[in-house]
Amino acid sequence: MDVKLEPSWDDLPLMANTSHILVKHYVLDLDVDFESQIFEGTIVLFFESRNRLEKQSGSTKETCRSESNEACRFSTPEPCHSPVTDTRTSSSKTGYNDFAICGKGEKDTSGKDGNHDNPEQASGISSSKYCCDTGNHGSEDFLLVLDCCDLSVFKVEEVDVAAVPGIETFTGSPQITFVSEELRNQIVHELVTLPADRWREQFDYYAHCSQAPGCGELLFDTDTWSLQIRKTGAQTATDFPHAIRIWYSTKPQGRSVTWTSDQSGRPCVYTMGSPVNNRALFPCQEPPVAMSTWQATVGAAASFVVLMSGENSAKPTQLREGRASWHYYVTMPMPASTFTIAVGSWAEMKPEICSSEDLAAERSLTPSEADFRCVGICGHMEYPCRFQNPSATTQEVIPHRVFAPVCLQGACQETLLPLVRPCLSAAHSVLGTHPFSRLDILIVPANFPSLGMASPHIIFLSQSVLIGMNHLCGTRLCHEIAHAWFGLAIGARDWTEEWLSEGFATHLEDVFWAKAQQLAPHEAWEQQELKADLRWRCLQDEVRNYPEEMQVLRPNKEKTGHVSDSGSSVIKHGLNPEKVFMQVHYLKGYFLLRFLAQRLGDDTYFAFLRKFVHTFHGQLILSQDFLQMLLENIPEEKRLDLSVENIFRDWLESSGIPQPLQTERQARAECGLARRVGAEVHKWIRVNRRPHKRKRRETEEVFEKLLPDQLVLLLEHLLEQKTLNPRTLQSLKRTYQLSQQDAEVRHRWCELIVKHKYTKAYKDVERFLQEDQGLENSSCWGATDMLVSRHTALGGCSATGDTYTVPPELLSATHVAVAGHGHIPVWGADGERGRQAAAGCPPVL
After folding, report:
1. Which of 123, 397, 594, 840 could form a disulfide with 620 if both were Cys (CB 3.0 to 4.6 A apart)?
2. Which helix (H) or strand (E) holds 717?
3. Cα–Cα distance between 824 and 211 in angstroms, integer?
C-alpha cells in the first residue's frame, strides 16, 4: 500500500502520481469570459508511463503499488450529444481545422464536478476513498491523479490520435488498418520522444492531435485537491490512454488567477503567484519532477492583449467579428507551476531611438538556428537548448517587450525601459548564456501582491517600482532577471528548499545592478555592504518574530527530495499565511552565498557559478548538488572546515542566526555609506532635542544627500527613537522630499507618520495604501528591495516595542482592504510573494 499523505493544516499537498505516469506536453485551448470571470475550454495532456521511460533509460523498472483497495466512486460517463461544429468558428485555435470537436460550452448541470459541492468530497486529502490500485498486479483499474482545485470539470475523454492524417509515420506502417489502445499509446510515445531538432514537426502534430475526435469518455471524480481519472479495464499506467482531453472551466473565486481592473479602469486577469500555483487554472501535475512542454491558444475580445509564458512573441489572429486568438509555446520542459498568463488592455512601450547595433544584438534566435546534434553537451533531457547555440551564447541582450496599462506609459518610458538593456547585459556578463530566448515585462494592476514575479519569458512588476529614482526599479528588475537562471532554468527538486531560488536571486541582484550602473569596484563594494547591513537588520527581526520551525531552510533534512511511492508529497507550511510574510529563505540563503563567495574570492566564485549553470541548467537540484560541486572546486587551502555536513548543520538545518554569520557580523567594520548615515542620525536627534524657540546664534544643521538605501537605513534608525516631534518630521520630509522617494523609503516614512500621529502627512499614508498594494499586502519583500522585516508594520509594534495603529480616519479615507484589518505588514527582503518558480519550484518571486 502507498503511504497516505497526512499533511498538517498549513501544508500544501502535491497529489499527482508522477512515479507512475508523467505529462510530457499540454495543449490548452481556452476562451476568456470577463463577464463571467472564467476561462473555459479544453486541455489535452500527452503522457509517458514511467516504466516505459525507465526501460528507455536502462534503469530498473519500478514496481507500482496499490494506493487503496477501496472501490472508486466516479462520474458515470455519458456520450457527447453536442452537435458537431466547425472548429473555425467554435474554437479559438487557428491553423488546425482538420477535426470537429464537441462544443466547449457544456455547462456543469449535473453537480458531478466534485469541487467543494459535496461536503463528503471536501473533507480533505487524507481520505483514500478515490484511490485505486495503480500497479499491474491487481484487479483494480489504474488511477490517474492530477493536481486540481477550484475547477468545474465537465467531461474527460480519450483522444483518438490515430485519426490524425499522416500519423501513420509514427507506426512504421504505410497505413493504419486496425486501431488499438496499444497502437494509440505507441503513437504518443513516438511523438513525445522525437529528437529536439524535429520540435516544429512535433508541435504541429501535438496541435493536430489535440483536435482529433474523442474515442470514449473516461470515468472521473474530484476531491479538494485533485482530479482522479480512470478507464475501465486499464490496470496499469502503460495501459492507460496516453492522450486525454479534459473539458472544464475555472471558477470566479479560483485561487490561481485574479480578476480585476487595471490602473486605467479596464478589466484584466492574471496569474498572481498563488500558493496553490496553477491547479485552479488547469488540471496538471505539480510535483517538480513533472517537467513538460506546452502550447496554448487563448481567445479574447479583439481589444485585449494576451501575454503568456512562451518562446514566441505572439501576434493576434482575427477570428469571428470582435474576437482574436493568441498562440504561445514553450519547447524547454518546465514544471506546470511556471505557466503564467495576463490578459488586459496592455499598451506596448517602444524605445524612442533604436540603433542598428541594438537591433542586431537583439535579433531573435529561433531554436532551429542551433546545432542540436551535440546531444552529449548538456545533462538535461533533450530539448532545443540555447547553451548549445553559439549565436545564443554571445547574445548579451535578448529581444524584449515592455507592456503596461495605458495610463502608465509615460512612467514606463522614463523609468523602466532604459534599464532593461543594461540589466540584461549585466546578467549575461556574470552568468553567460540567457536560458530563455526573449522576455516580456508587464506592469501589473495595483492589487498585485508583490513587487515582482518571474516566469519563463515573462516578468511581472508592480507599479511601485516606477515611483522615485530608478534604484528600486533596477534592483527589482535584476532580481527577477536572475530567476531566469536560478528558479527557472535550474529549479529545486524539493520546493521546501526555496533558498536555491530566492537566495541566489537576492545575492545576484546586487552584482547585476552594480554592473548595470557601471560602478567602480569600490563603489560597488560600498553599495553591497550597505545592502548587507539592511538585510542583517531584517534577518534579526525575522528570527525574533517567527516560529523556529519556519526559520529552517532545509526543513525535511535527510528526507529532502523524498516522495511517496506514487510520487505525491506535501510542501511543509506551503499554505501557512505567515509564510507569505517571511524572508528567511531569501536572507539566510543570501548570507550563505555571500559567505562562500568571500571564502573563495569573487573571481573564483563567479567563475564556478558559470560552470555550475552550464552543468545543471534544465535540471532539478538539491542543496547538496550545489555544495558538493562547489567544494570540489575550492582549493584545499581555502576549504578549511567547510563541508556539506557543516553547511547543512550551521546554515540550512538550524533555526536562528547561523553561527558563522554571527561571528562575521561581530568582527566587521561599518562601510563608509553606513557611517555617513550614522552621522546624519545624530544630527536629526540633535534637531529633535532643540527647544521650540531657539537661540539666534545656534547654527543650522547641514544634511548630506543620501542614496535610497541610505535613506531606508536612516529612517530605520529614527523609528527606534521613542518620540520625534512634528517640527522634526516636517523638516525630515522637506529635506529628503520623502513623498517623492521610492516605495521602500516611503514605507518607512509612513511608519514614522503613524507611529507619531503626524496628522499633517496622513495624505502620504493614504497614497501609499492606494498605490503601493504590492508592498502593503505582502511583507514578502525580497532581499533586493526592502530590507526590514519587523513583524510590525504600519499598525503594529515599532522597533522599540511601542504599539501603534493606523487611525480609523485613514482607513476610511482610502477604502482599501488592508491586510490585517488596518495593519500594513512591513515587507521583508523582497517584495515578492508566492511563486517559487521553475525548473523545479513553483513560480518565482
Report:
1. 840
2. helix 708-719
3. 49
Distance, in Å, from the CA atom of 85 to the CA atom of 88, rounded to the nearest integer, reads 9
Give the C-alpha separation, 730 to 721, whole Å: 16
User: Mean pLDDT throughout 175-180?
Assistant: 88
Q: Cell for 412?
A: 514606463
User: Is residue 782's pLDDT more than 70?
Assistant: no
pLDDT for 46-93, tens place per residue? Answer: 999 987 655 555 443 333 333 333 333 445 444 333 333 333 333 344
8 Å CB contact between 416 and 465: yes
Using an 8 Å Cβ cutoff, are 275 and 575 in contact? Answer: yes
CA separation for the pair 750, 182 (Å, rounded): 66
Q: Where on the phi/psi map is residue 335: left (φ > 0), alpha (ψ -120 to 50), or beta?
A: beta
CA dist 478 and 437 (Å) reads 17
Phi, psi of 323 (to 5 degrees): -125, 150
8-state DSSP, 832: B
Q: Which residue has the cell 480616519?
A: 809
CB 462 within 8 A of CB 412: no
Cell of 63: 514496481
Q: Return the amino acid letter for 27.
A: V
pLDDT digits (tens, 9 = 90+) for 306-345: 999 999 999 999 988 899 999 999 999 999 999 999 999 9
480 catalytically annotated: yes
Q: Are 26 and 294 in contact (CB under 8 A)?
A: yes
Q: In angstroms, how far is the first alpha carbon of the chain from the final one?
A: 38
Q: Which amino acid is at 251?
A: K
Whole-angstrom CA distances from 257 to 37, 246, 840 are 10, 19, 21
DSSP bridge partners of 455: 458
CA separation for the pair 770, 162 (Å, rounded): 56
Cell of 710: 541610505
Closest CA relative to residue 432, chosen from 614, 239, 589: 614
What the block records as the C-alpha cell of 533 is: 547591513
From 48, 311, 480, 498, the catalytic residue:
480
CA atoms of 521 and 523, how far apart (whole Å): 6
Which set of grid coordinates corresponds to residue 792?
510590525
Exposure string for 394-413, b = 16+ CB within 10 A, e = fewer: ebebbbbbbbbbeebbebbb
Residue 814's pLDDT is what? 45
**Nearest-angstrom CA–CA distance, 672 and 687:** 23
* The model's pTM: 0.85
* Contacts of 380 by beta carbon, 8 Å cutoff, 6+ apart: 333, 617, 618, 619
| pLDDT at 239 > cutoff 50 | yes
Any residues with CB less than 8 A from the CB of 498 and at least 6 apart, and which? 492, 553, 585, 589, 836, 841
d(CA 727, CA 688): 8
Distance CA 221, CA 216 (A): 16
Angle in degrees, 0-180, between the axes of helices 623-632 and 499-516, rounded to the nearest 10: 60
- The maximal CA–CA distance of the chain, rounded, in angstroms, is 105
